[in-house]
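USER: Please consider what follows.
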Amino acid sequence: QVQLVESGGGLVQAGGSLRLSCAASGRMFNTYTMGWFRQAPGKEREFVAGIAWSGGITYTADYADSVKGRFTISRDNVKKTVYLQMNSLKAEDTAVYYCAAGTRPSMRAGDYDYWGQGTQVAVSS
């Protein structure tokens, strides 16, 4: 089994930055696809960013169009931690952010097997 614990959420002003962390426990972390999703009140959970093992020496990252160029996903396989660096934050980024782990690259929440508890990100303008 895999357990995910998120941290780093909080309140930030528009234009500011925040870094979310997701610490994972369990086996096969290096080959798992790790993703970040977010959900605002009254809205569906949406894909934010994902990072998947390519089978080589690098990982392939993907981003939602709404965050591309502002957010960066990365992972530290030694620490079994995935990060989401969020820059140039906007009020529309306000949501609960969830870390997820799955066995294949996907932008669909239903394709992920393990989820963290979520961390609140609030951006004021």
Remarks:
- The CA atoms of residues 14 and 90 lie 5 Å apart.
- The chain has no helices and eleven strands.
- The mean pLDDT is 93.
- The longest strand covers residues 18-25.
